[in-house]
Amino acid sequence: GLDLYPRVRRFGIGWLAVRIGRRPKSRKPHDRENLFCGRRFGRTLYLGGRVWPLKFMLKGFACFLSARWTPALICKDRIWSRQSKQYKITHFLERRSAEFATVISSGTRFMQERLESWKVRAKFFKIPSVAAQEKFQFRQADRELVRGELGLSEERPVLLYPGKFGDLYYKEETPRFFEWLRQEIDGLYLLIVTPHSDEEVFALFDSQGISRDHYRITHSDYSQIDRYYSAADFGLIAVPPGPSKCFISNIKVGEYLCSGLPYLVTRGVSEDYCYAEDYQVGVVVDDFVESEARRVAPLLADYLRRERQELRVLSASDHRVAQLS
Questions:
Q1: How many other CB atoms are found less than 10 A from the CB of residue 267?
Q2: Angle, to 10 degrees, between the axis of helix 39-48 and the axis of helix 5-21?
Q3: Strand ordering across the sheet containing 103-106
Q4: Which residues are within 8 A (CB) of 99 and not within 5 positions of it... i.e. 6 or more apart?
Q5: Which pairs with CB-CB distance under 8 Å and at least 24 residues apart come from 91-94?
Q6: What secondary structure does DSSP assign to 189-253, as a single string?
Q7: Residues 43-90: pLDDT tens digits?
Q8: How many Å separate Cα 273 from the centre of its chain?
Q9: What is the pTM of this model?
């Protein structure tokens, strides 16, 4: 006769995994997409595949491995220990979901190397984050307009940071790092485009003793954000280094390069630090600490002394090379 117990037991495990893997419904399309791409649903598909023969693609596999709650960062932030049951179960299921998948896409070659070390047989496709190349281009008219609004001369060196403070990004470290750079580079100015309120950012920078004369807080939706890229001379990536950061694909770097901006990034973040060094369109630091700021300040100053048009052509060229890599 047909032994139903193993099938019922596996079905129960799969159903429980689906319940655990569920997230609140969202009206935003990208949130629903993240549910499909996320580590919970990948684990659910693996467990479900123990009952039903499934073939599935893990899209953006790097997304959940580089998220705040991945085993590598969980251990780093001391939320879970490597000996904990939570870590061991999560790590086991993440690896099993990769081994069970038919196709896997991710944003960097580092994930491909990880999968090869796991002996994963799934077909791998490298699909990094994509910047809107036609939108993010240098425009002299935007540069003059924004700098006029900010009261900045054409020759004032401007460091751009379009992002957040805290959580997955540096917080107090960012204003401190900027101040150390500013002490080494005459006239360096920080242009911030952020969703945080002015009060939040002022409080953060005031706590680090940064004069408000040296930076400006602005806000923009996506339709206008590219204007600020044209107004700047150098881009900043404020992502701390970490065990899983090599798997992320940072869209800001693509936007910087499309706009002809060199950039500063921490070592180990995506392949961005490799491109910065290999194609000489940026500077790389180990961390946002004083010794690193003072070490790379002469390199950054050298970029800023060069002819602006030369930098824009070089960075845009690097972007095209990166697309082919």
A1: 17
A2: 170
A3: 57-58, 103-106, 123-126
A4: 118, 119, 120, 121, 122
A5: 93/43, 93/46, 93/47, 94/39, 94/42, 94/43, 94/64, 94/65, 94/70
A6: EEEEE-SS-HHHHHHHHHHTT--GGGEEEE---TTTTHHHHHH-SEEE------TTGGG---HHH
A7: 555 555 555 556 666 766 653 433 334 444 444 444 556 677 777 777
A8: 12
A9: 0.74
- The single-letter DSSP state of residue 103 is E
Instruction: Tell me, rounded to whole angstroms, the distance of Cα 210 from its chain centroid.
Output: 26
Give the tens place of pLDDT for each residue, 94-141. Answer: 778 787 788 888 777 888 788 888 888 888 888 777 788 889 999 999
Q: Within the chain, how many helices (H) and strands (E) appear?
A: 15, 9
Could you give the CA distance from residue 146 to residue 316 in angstroms, rounded to a whole number?
A: 21
Cα angle 192, 152, 298 (rounded to 5 degrees) comes to 70
Low-confidence ranges of the chain (pLDDT < 50): 1-2, 17-41, 63-78, 319-325
